[in-house]
Design a protein that fits this description.
Blueprint: H1 2-9, H2 17-44, H3 48-51, H4 55-82, H5 89-108, H6 120-131, H7 141-152, H8 163-188, H9 191-201
């Protein structure tokens, strides 16, 4: 029990790729579920108790949560890339390949949701961004949170009559959540250890 308390208040450094995947996947899952559930519950208010008892509504809500999870997972990988000091174009390509593979492994940990035949579009977009990544002007956490919100908004199973306000509410939730994840990544990521493993994973076979 003491070890669990220590890990809670002083979580260990992320020094291995399995630990990296657990961190990113766990944070993406938590933020995806919390933000979409709170938005939906607050929007529906009293009617939520009926909606969440409806199978069709829950099917739509699952689509929303899965798309939010994928959008956040890939953007949290970009947060990690921005924190790595990769020496040169060749190493950058290898690190990008390995990071995309990490994202693919995280998505493959779960059976494909019924509305999806593959995550190829999500992963292809990530690979392109990693291949053209500019370390001088990396995407910031607020912008990445806004990107995720743009993906999530069309899938929300309930909305109010004010589209502008709805977009801002979900954007705020994902923006501030992504900033918080970036802060935790900054304190826990062992950049040297993770970069070394990524470069080894991304090396030509």
């Amino acid at each position: 029990m003491l070890n669990r308390l220590i890990d809670h208040f002083r979580p260990p450094a992320i020094r291995t790729l399995p630990a990296f995947r657990r961190f990113v996947s766990g944070e993406a899952s938590y933020l995806a579920q919390r933000s979409t559930y709170e938005f939906t519950r607050n929007t529906l208010a009293w009617y939520g108790q009926h909606a969440f008892a409806d199978d069709r509504f829950n099917d739509a809500f699952r689509v929303c949560r899965w798309e939010a999870y994928a959008a956040l997972t890939t953007r949290f990988v970009l947060l990690a890339r921005a924190r790595l000091d990769v020496p040169g174009a060749a190493a950058s390509a290898r690190a990008g390949t390995a990071l995309a593979d990490q994202a693919a492994a995280m998505l493959a940990e779960y059976p494909l949701p019924p509305h999806r035949q593959a995550w190829d579009d999500i992963l292809d977009a990530l690979r392109l961004r990693l291949a053209t990544f500019d370390p001088v002007a990396p995407p910031g956490p607020a912008a990445l949170g806004d990107e995720a919100a743009a993906v999530v908004y069309p899938t929300l199973p309930a909305r109010s009559g004010n589209a502008t306000e709805d977009r801002e509410v979900i954007a705020n939730a994902l923006r501030f959540g992504t900033i918080a994840v970036n802060d935790r990544l900054g304190t826990r990521l062992d950049r040297t250890a993770i970069l070394g493993q990524l470069l080894a994973e991304g090396a030509p076979r």
